[in-house]
C-alpha cells in the first residue's frame, strides 16, 4: 500500500511497509465484519508481500520504504511494530507459520536494533543499524507514542511465551508513563499540536493491555480528557480525521476494559466528525476513502489508507456500541 493518495494530482506516494502492515490488520478486520472473501484474499497477498518481498533477511528488518536506497535506507521502530502486529493478525487468521516466524524475527530485531538502556531509538540507519541523530519532530525522537509499536512485544509474548518480549513491553510502559505528560502540547504551533494528538493517541492505544493497573487506567482517563480538550480547541483551524477516530476508539475500548465510563455525547460528536471525512465519489481511487484532514474548513487533498482504516474501525465499533453488541479483543485494534 502507498502511504497516501494525492487526489489533486492523481498520484500515489511510495509503497510503504508500515502502511502495508496496517493494511493487513484492516483487511482482516473488514473480513471479520463482512465475511467477504476479497478482503481475506487481499490480506493474504499483503502479508506475503511483507514476508517475501519487504523483509530484508540479510539485515533482519523491514526497511522504511521498499527499494528507495537499497540497503542504505532507514528502519523505524514504530513501523516494525505495526508490521509485526499485522503479521500476527495474519497468523491468527490463516494459521500459517510463515507469518508467525517473520513476526518473531522482526520482534527480536526490534530488541536488538532499537532498544537501549536510555531509550528506544526511533530510527536506525541501514545497513549498520546506527541510531539516527534525534531531531525536533516527534517521530524522530523517543517518546510515549512508541508504546503502540511496543504492543508488538506484548503480543509476541502471548504468542510465544518468551519472557524477554514481555519485559521489554513493560519497560516501554514505565518509560511512557514517565514521559507522557510532557508530550502535550509539546509545541507552540497549534497545527503541530494536532499532529502530536495523533501520536499521543498511540500512547493511549498502547496502554490497552495494562488498563487493569490503576496507574495506567488513571493515565488513560487523563489522556482521553486532555486529547479531547486540545482537539476541540484546535479543530476549527486544523483537524485530522485520524485523531477523531483514535479518540473515539479509545473511549469505546476503554469502557470495554472498565477503565472509564463512556461520554456518549462526546463519542457521538467524534463519530460525526470522523464520518464527515468520507469521500463520496464514483472514482474508485477515492470513493469510500477518508480524507486526511481539513484546514480552516477546507479539505486537504490526501486520501489516506490509515485515516480510512482508523475511521472505518471507529465507526463500526460505535455502531456496535449503540446497538449493545460491542464485544472485541484488543488485538483487533488497527
State the strand order across the main sheet: 2-1-9
How many DSSP helices? 11
- The CATH architecture name of the largest domain reads Alpha/alpha barrel
Distance between the termini: 15 Å
Q: How is the biggest beta sheet arranged?
A: 3 strands, antiparallel
Number of strands: 9
Number of domains: 2
* CATH hierarchy, class of the largest domain: Mainly Alpha
Structural class: mainly alpha
Helix content: 55-70%
CATH topology of the largest domain: Glycosyltransferase
How would you portray this structure in words?
This protein has two domains: 169 residues, Glycosyltransferase (Alpha/alpha barrel), CATH 1.50.10.20; 146 residues, no CATH class. It is mainly alpha-helical and 334 residues long. The strands form three sheets. Strands 2-1-9 form a three-stranded antiparallel beta sheet. Strands 3-4-5 form a three-stranded antiparallel beta sheet. A hairpin with a 4-residue loop joins strand 4 and strand 5. The chain is globular. The protein is built from eleven helices and nine strands. The model has no long low-confidence stretch (mean pLDDT 95).
Give the SSE map.
Elements: E1 5-6, E2 11-12, H1 17-34, H2 37-54, E3 74-76, H3 77-94, H4 97-113, E4 123-125, E5 130-131, H5 147-160, H6 163-179, H7 190-206, H8 214-234, E6 238-240, H9 241-256, H10 264-275, E7 293-295, E8 298-299, E9 302-303, H11 305-322
Antiparallel strand pairs: 1-2, 1-9, 3-4, 4-5, 6-7, 7-8
Helix pairs in contact: 1-2, 1-3, 1-11, 2-3, 3-4, 3-5, 4-5, 5-6, 5-7, 7-8, 7-9, 8-9, 9-10, 9-11, 10-11
Amino acid at each position: 500500500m502507498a502511504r497516501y493518495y494525492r487526489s489533486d494530482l492523481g498520484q500515489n506516494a511510495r509503497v510503504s511497509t508500515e502502511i502495508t502492515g496496517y493494511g493487513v490488520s484492516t483487511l482482516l478486520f473488514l473480513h471479520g465484519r463482512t465475511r467477504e472473501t476479497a478482503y481475506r484474499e487481499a490480506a493474504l497477498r499483503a502479508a506475503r508481500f511483507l514476508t517475501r518481498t519487504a523483509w530484508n533477511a540479510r539485515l533482519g528488518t523491514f526497511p522504511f520504504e521498499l527499494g528507495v536506497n537499497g540497503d542504505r535506507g532507514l528502519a523505524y521502530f514504530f513501523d516494525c511494530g505495526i508490521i509485526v502486529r499485522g503479521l500476527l493478525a495474519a497468523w491468527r487468521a490463516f494459521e500459517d507459520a510463515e507469518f508467525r516466524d517473520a513476526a518473531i524475527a522482526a520482534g527480536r530485531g526490534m530488541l536488538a536494533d532499537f532498544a537501549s538502556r536510555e531509550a528506544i531509538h526511533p530510527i536506525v540507519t541501514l545497513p549498520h543499524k546506527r541510531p539516527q541523530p534525534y531531531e525536533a519532530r516527534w517521530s524522530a525522537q523517543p517518546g510515549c507514542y512508541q508504546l503502540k509499536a511496543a504492543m508488538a512485544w506484548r503480543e509476541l509474548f502471548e504468542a510465544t511465551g518468551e519472557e524477554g518480549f514481555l519485559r521489554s513491553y513493560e519497560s516501554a510502559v514505565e518509560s511512557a508513563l514517565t514521559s507522557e505528560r510532557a508530550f502535550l502540547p509539546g509545541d507552540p504551533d497549534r497545527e503541530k499540536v494536532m499532529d502530536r494528538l495523533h501520536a499521543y493517541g498511540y500512547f493511549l492505544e498502547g496502554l490497552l493491555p495494562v488498563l487493569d493497573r490503576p496507574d495506567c487506567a488513571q493515565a488513560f482517563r487523563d489522556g482521553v480528557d486532555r486529547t479531547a480538550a486540545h482537539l476541540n480547541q484546535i479543530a476549527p483551524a486544523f483537524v485530522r480525521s485520524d485523531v477523531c477516530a483514535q479518540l473515539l476508539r479509545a473511549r469505546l475500548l476503554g469502557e470495554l476494559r472498565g477503565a472509564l465510563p463512556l461520554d456518549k455525547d462526546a463519542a457521538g460528536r467524534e463519530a460525526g466528525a470522523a464520518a464527515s471525512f468520507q469521500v463520496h465519489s464514483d472514482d474508485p481511487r477515492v470513493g469510500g476513502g477518508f480524507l486526511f484532514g481539513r484546514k480552516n474548513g477546507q479539505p486537504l487533498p490526501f486520501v489516506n489508507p490509515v485515516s480510512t482504516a482508523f475511521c472505518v474501525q471507529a465507526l463500526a465499533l460505535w455502531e456496535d456500541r449503540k446497538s449493545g453488541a460491542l464485544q472485541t479483543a484488543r488485538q483487533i485494534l488497527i
